[in-house]
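Hypothesis: this fold can be encoded by more than one sequence.
Test: take the structure tokens below, design a sequence, compare later.
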């Protein structure tokens, strides 16, 4: 049972990038289960349609899947227009689309580094800017940027993603500074390792998984539901003074130094 009132987001619409899978699918479900309608977006229309059907059935709210590539502003604008056409506007934007893989900096191709920067950082800017211009400037709202803790200290094999998420955190602060006066709150979430996700399948393969858990003070990974609840909290009036801040939810993982760094001798 949820600790939040089930209609706390009634009348709201959320636009969630990366909402077809993993953590951001979980966030979308939590927002919908508490009254919001949702538009989910990523590159694969088929997966979006399947997720939209599943979440609508589960929550009784409406969910629309619209394919777009966050690296391409024209596709982002078209997806936001589709949200406005279907729901009359939107109030919540979650920037969750991201790409990552393990790779030593010396072996990253120029294009590999650029690709991750483009999806995570430029994608977050593209979506935030277009959403602000189209809706949020006039009606206010909340932007939630999904970050990470990779760049607190440093994480081996993650030069690309750490740089991209550091820039996302910087954007969270800059946009908060400039857009707060328009009634737009901009906040971030930095998850630690989250179980049953594509991210953890890629970053903690095989035996690294158990060693990583051993390095987490709570001795377990987080769950998608825990990150979803935090996102939900940040979208409610209970979080009305939280602005420009990125909240860590990692069971204390980064406090002990990065477990992956220890494993890699970093
Ligand atoms: P995920 O399911 O793979 O989520 C990433 C999403 O981004 C996918 O739905 C993907 O869908 C979409 N995407 C990728 N490139 C895109 C593009 N160019 N345009 C639009 N959408 C795109 O992985 P996840 O592990 O749940 O990660 C979700 C978020 O949490 C990410 O921001 C990640 O950095 C962050 N995070 C995760 C963890 C973890 O432990 N899993 C830890 C810290 C932070 P398509 O392939 O269909 O485009
Ligand atoms: N190691 C090193 N380089 C890699 C790589 C890996 N595992 N995977 C891709 N790359 C390189 C490619 O070789 C390419 O560089 P090149 O042109 O110099 O050869 C560059 O990255 C772009 O790859 P491409 O597959 O063309 O990009 P894409 O836009 O189709 O996909 C990715 C983006 C690479 C991030 C892909 O993994 C993806 O779609 N991820 C989304 C899901 C995800 O990462 N979830 C976890 C979130 S934490």
């Amino acid at each position: 049972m949820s600790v939040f009132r089930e209609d706390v987001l009634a009348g709201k619409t959320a636009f969630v990038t990366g909402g077809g899978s993993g953590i951001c699918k979980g966030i979308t479900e939590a927002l919908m289960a508490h009254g919001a309608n949702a538009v989910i977006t990523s590159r694969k229309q088929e997966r979006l349609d399947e997720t939209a059907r599943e979440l609508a059935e589960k929550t009784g709210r409406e969910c629309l899947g619209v394919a777009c590539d966050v690296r391409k502003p024209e596709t982002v604008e078209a997806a936001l227009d589709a949200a406005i056409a279907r729901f009359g506007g939107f109030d919540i934007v979650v920037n969750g689309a991201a790409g990552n893989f393990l790779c030593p900096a010396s072996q990253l191709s120029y294009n590999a580094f650029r690709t991750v920067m483009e999806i995570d950082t430029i994608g977050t800017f593209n979506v935030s800017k277009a959403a602000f211009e189209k809706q949020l400037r006039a009606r206010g709202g909340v932007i939630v940027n999904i970050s990470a803790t990779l760049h607190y200290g440093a994480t081996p094999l993650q030069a690309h993603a750490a740089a991209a998420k550091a820039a996302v955190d910087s954007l969270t602060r800059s946009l908060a500074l400039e857009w707060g006066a328009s009634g737009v709150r901009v906040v971030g979430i930095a998850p630690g390792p989250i179980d049953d996700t594509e991210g953890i399948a890629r970053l903690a393969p095989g035996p690294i998984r158990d060693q990583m858990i051993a390095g987490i003070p709570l001795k377990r990974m987080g769950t998608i539901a825990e990150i979803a609840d935090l996102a939900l909290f940040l979208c409610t009036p209970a979080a009305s003074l939280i602005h420009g801040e990125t909240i860590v939810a990692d069971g204390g993982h980064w406090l002990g130094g990065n477990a992956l760094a220890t494993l890699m001798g970093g």
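Residues 13-203+222-255 form a domain with the Rossmann fold fold (CATH 3.40.50.720). The chain has a mean pLDDT of 96.
Hypothesis status: open.
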